[in-house]
Amino acid sequence: MAFATTVPARALAVGLLGVSFGIGWPAFNAMIAGIVRGRLRTQYFGVNFALVNLGIGLGGVVSGFLTDVSRPGTFTAIFLADAGCVLVPVALLLGPLRAVAGRPEQAAAGEAPGSGYLAILRRPSVLWVTALTFLSSFVGYGQMEAGFPAFARQVSEVSTRTIGLAFAANTAVIVLLQFLVLRRIDGRRRTRVFLVLVGLWVAAWSLLGTTGLVAGTLAAAAGVVVFHVLFGLGETLLQPTVPAIVNDLASDRDRGRYNAVSAMAFQVGAIAAPVTAGWLLDRRLAGVFVGMLVVCLGLVALLALALERVVPPAANDVPVREVPPAVSATR
C-alpha cells in the first residue's frame, strides 16, 4: 500500500488486506471463544468491540493530523507505521499467546469427525443466525460506510465536516457506553437484545430520511449526527450478541468453521450494501432507499424471533430458571 502507484498495485494491496481479514477474523474469534466461555463471552466480545472502536477513532485522529493530500509521502509514512504496528500482535501470537487455545484434540476411534460447512449450514439455528448476520451487515455496517455518507452529502446536503463529526460521535458513543450496555444486557436473552437493536436502527434510518426534507439546514446537520448516535448505541448491542451465539453453537472442533460461516455472511452483506445504495441513490430514489432499509430491519426482527425458537437456551443466554423442565431434562 505504501508504495503502490498504479491501480493494479493498489488492488493487490487491498486484496491482501481482504485475505488477511478473511483468515484472521474467524481465527481470532475462535481463539477467544476457546479461552472465554459461557456468559463471559458476551462481556468479552462487547469489551473487544469498544477497544476496536477506540483504536479506529485514535487511528483516524492521528492520520487526520499527519496526512496531507498535497504530500503523498505522509501517506507512505502512515502505511509503513501501520505495517510496523502489525508486528506487535505477531510477536504476541508467537510469544505469550502461542500455547493459548491450541488445536482441539483429534477425534478418537469411532468418534464422528468435525462437521463440514454444508452440515453446519443445515442446522436450523446456524441457518437463521447466518441470515441474521447477513441482513444486519447489509442494513448496518455496509450502509453506514457507503449508503450513509452518500445520503448525507447528496440528499441531506451536509458538509463533509458534519459527516466526520457524525462518525466521531459514533465512536464516542461506543467507547463510552459499551460497558454500561454490557451491564444492562447481562443475563438477558440475546435474541431479545437484538430486537432492541432493530428498534434503534429503525429510528436512526428514519431520522436520516427526514433530514432530506430540510436539506442543507442546521436541522439536517443535527439529524445526521444524531443518526450516528443512535446507530452506535445499536452497535453496542450487536457485537456482544451475535459472536457469542455463534461460538456457543459450535463445538471446539468446529469453532473455526462456524466463525468462518459467520464472517462470510457479514462480508457478503457488506459487499451488497454499497452496490444497492449506489444504484438507488444514483437514481434519486432516496425514499425507496430508506424504506428498503426499514423493511429489511423488520425482516431482521422476524429472523431474531425465529432464531429464538430453535437456538439452544444456553446459546441464547437464557437463565437456568427460565429453561422449561422438559428442555432441562434433555440437556
Characterization of this structure:
The chain is 76% helix and 0% strand. It has 13 helices and no strands. It has helices at residues 7-35, 40-66, 72-94, 117-121, 124-139, 141-154, 160-185, 190-211, 218-238, 242-249, 255-282, 286-310, 325-330. The chain starts with 6 loop residues before the first helix and ends with a helix.
How do the helices and strands line up, and which of them pair or pack?
Layout: H1 7-35, H2 40-66, H3 72-94, H4 117-121, H5 124-139, H6 141-154, H7 160-185, H8 190-211, H9 218-238, H10 242-249, H11 255-282, H12 286-310, H13 325-330
Helix pairs in contact: 1-11, 2-7, 5-6, 5-10, 5-11, 5-12, 6-11, 7-9, 8-9, 8-12, 10-11
Q: What pattern of helices and strands is seen along the backbone?
A: HHHHHHHHHHHHH
**What is the strand tally?**
0
Helix tally equals 13
Mean pLDDT: 88
Q: What profile does the largest beta sheet have? A: none
User: Which class of secondary structure composition applies to the elements?
Assistant: mainly alpha
The radius of gyration over CA amounts to 21 Å
General shape: globular
Strand content: under 5%
Low-confidence stretches: 325-331
Distance between the termini: 51 Å
Short account of what is shown:
With 331 residues, this protein is mainly alpha-helical. Helix content is 76%, strand content 0%.
Please supply descriptive tags for the structure shown above:
331 residues, mainly alpha, 13 helices, 0% strand, globular, disordered C terminus
